[in-house]
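README: folding subset

This subset contains proteins for which both the sequence and a predicted structure token string are available. Records are stored as plain text. Below is the entry for Nucleotide sugar dehydrogenase (457 residues), shown exactly as it appears on disk.
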Amino acid sequence: MTITQHNASSGVTWAPVAGPGVTRWTDRLDAAGENTPTPLQGLTVAVVGLGYVGLPTALGLLDAGATVLGVDISEQRLADIRSGNVDLLPAQHAALACTQNTGDFLLTTDVDTLPRADAVIVCVPTPVTEDYRPDLRALSAACATVVERAVPGQLIVLTSTSHVGTTRDLLLAPLAARGLAAERDVLVAFAPERIDPGNERHTPETTPRIVGGAGPVSSRAAAFVLRATASRIHQVPDPETAEMAKLWENIFRAVNIALANELSEACAHLGLAPVQVIDAAATKPYGFMPFYPGPGAGGHCIPCDPYYLLHQLPPGGPSAPVLSSAMTALRERPAQIAAQAADRLRADGRPLDGARVLVLGAAYKPGVSDMRESPALRLLALLAEQGADAHYSDCHVPRLTVEGRELRSVADPHEEVWDLVIVHTVHPGTDLGWLDAVPRVLDTRHRIRPATPAAVR
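--- output ---
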């Protein structure tokens, strides 16, 4: 895979004269009112990829009156959606259940349905490889499929986080090669997702959305379609600005998570409770945003997205030492936790080899079953490598595979004897009272059994 460098003026430019299909969009946009109850009524929107981003996006579009074609290559995923066996907020589960009684939500693996859509929204994952290189295989394949089936007058919106220039590389240039010019024949925009799975405080509908179109009509059309799925739309001049904005957001979080972990260990060394220190610092009304320690960084964004920028920076060009160090620290966090576990046991004269160790909570964050890039996977592997009898307990993750070994969640961990419990993820409603009877508890979040402040020498 090659990542090229772009600037706002590079790549494919749009044509100044709008064709009939694009004119149809301008007419609709000119006639649309800001307060239309169902602004997308009469539009068919295809959502390509029905994962943690695509499914909530589809539900938002349905609520705005659109007919939605939900396209995914996985029959199992479609079956899970039909049965409701998916991670969604309660309100989203209710909305999904309502779709069973209408003909407005078609779930299919048939990509030949795409030409029927007025708009196509691409929502596929952009992970990294085992050696932390951007993995664009899914995104490239999805974009190629969309480009191959694009028709004049269609709006195509990319939402997947990737390197700067992705929209031009994977959509604008291939479309132009087919004779479909942006702003003349088709409309193209980049609008990065901002979905926080399992978080009811930050739903898509209450979160602003960035839109960067290949031209003014593309921006207006994308904003019109997506405004029902966001609290407001923030338009930027081009796709590249929107692409970099999304990378910047998640790089900011990655660096601050690594910093919170680092400073929490310093606090603990000094006999201070890290969370108390952070909460005190957070009383400052400006210039500070609280980040809290944990077992590392997991999920679809923080452990992956920063590498899309790091691998785009050319040798001898601008460097990013702060970001590079932060990502190294996040990768090494599970090893640091495993070392602390060994130290905690060794202090009581017990070796890690042969010790019964429980990792409490394995999902990458509370309230979801998502195991992508979860630090628990690496942590369990490291504990096993050092001879520990390692187990996990997670009500959202009944089973998982760690380096080829299948593990089952311990259903009632309070009924078993543990030499050490490592608190990794605490799901809503989890009872932690039983930990009082455990001889050793290592809380990666520094919220249980806070350190007693001691004199600093």
